[in-house]
Amino acid sequence: MSIADGGLKHGDEKMLLSRNTASAERDDASPLTPGQLMGLAGLLRAWRAAASERLGKPLTQKDVASALHRSTRWYRDLENGATVRLDRQLCEGLGKVLMLGRDELQALVLYGHGGAIASPSPAGDSPTRRALQLLIDKQMPSPTYLTDATWNVIGYNAAMAEWWPWVLEDKPNLMRWALLSREARTQFHDWARHAAEYIKLLKFAIPRHPDNPELAQLINELREDDEVRKIWDSSTEIAENRDGATYRMTIPAMNWETAELVSHVLYPASLPDCRLTVITWTRGEDGAEACGTDAGHPLAPLPTASDAGQALRRRIARRLSQHITVASADEAMALAGDDRAELPILSKFIGHDSRLAYSPSTRTVIWATRQDDDRWGIAEVEPYTIIVRMPQAIHVDGAKDEYKVLTRAILPADSIEAVERVQGLVAQLRRRIEVLEEIHRDEYQADPKNVPYIWHPVDEI
């Protein structure tokens, strides 16, 4: 069913992708523009359906047209994809009759005017960016980062790199990390709900930057993921920003404690196309951070028994965060101590120009990344942060020993406790393997001609 069929249900985003479907039939294979992924016509139908639900009766195209003192045909053409410039008065009239909220009305204005007037993303070494980076470094003690129009991270402070070292990677992008990475799906509590919030931001960006090819490429890439596409297709909601959003995450840099975080979003006046995000965290009634522990993941490290050991690790983390760059890779590796175990094979999996070294004395990993100025950015992370990023490394020749070092590091330091933990994990993993083999067997029995055979003891009887 197409948009023109008039049967859009509230929340059925698939109806908004008719332009996407039409574009798939084009002869060329050029990327879709953001406007082809989600258009004003589909949104108007979705908003009218939502208004009908709130009113408890159908809100017809004729009703909307009458309220705007326009012909029914004019509004019908608008919902069918006609390109029409909408002045502010018309947008406000539509907003009133369709009962739009602030973000929806803002999106309508952007669609009506063909996008926003905004400064381009700053160049790699612009004076404005250097000034903002100085502000982030010197005046922001909380994790802080700067993103451009398509959520590329173009600036961050030491605290951000300490808590979320993915910003040290080559060309880090907030949306790719939050929606596609296994790391984000592990750290966010109720990841699907947060994914929906990020998708709202992407949908708002479409009318703001309708002809931005990088945004189109980003959206296409994200929608290739089955889970992301399912969430995208499930709602028509949009949002301009996440300012004031409160959420819970399990942070490796805090020994996998759970923190309740708050995002504060600012728009630099000289770069309104960019966002400066500051992350703070709430505190309990006793003044302590509102954190707990999360032992739900089978490989999550257990808290260390020594309070002194934890204090040492936090002192080192603070020391590292105070000088986030060093001059050379050797100097970066030296931060892991004389007893360090360098991880050259796993370093290649992290990305170009990255170096990893495990420090037995602190049971943490030094993660160094070469920056544009040839200095090396430093972050100290939990071994589990590295393991969760590269589960495929266990199959690579030569990587097993390095993987083993990190796996041992996330187990209790005491040998007896470590073996007990291993036994528990092995029992869990064996049971999971049995379940997977049973599923394979069930699928084979249901379709033996097409599903590969799997051996079962009953076959020998």
From TrEMBL:
Start and end residues of each MmyB-like transcription regulator ligand binding domain: 129-290
Bilayer-crossing regions: none
InterPro entries: Lambda_DNA-bd_dom_sf, MLTR_LBD
Origin superkingdom: Bacteria
Protein name from the UniProt record: Helix-turn-helix transcriptional regulator
Native source species: Streptomyces halobius
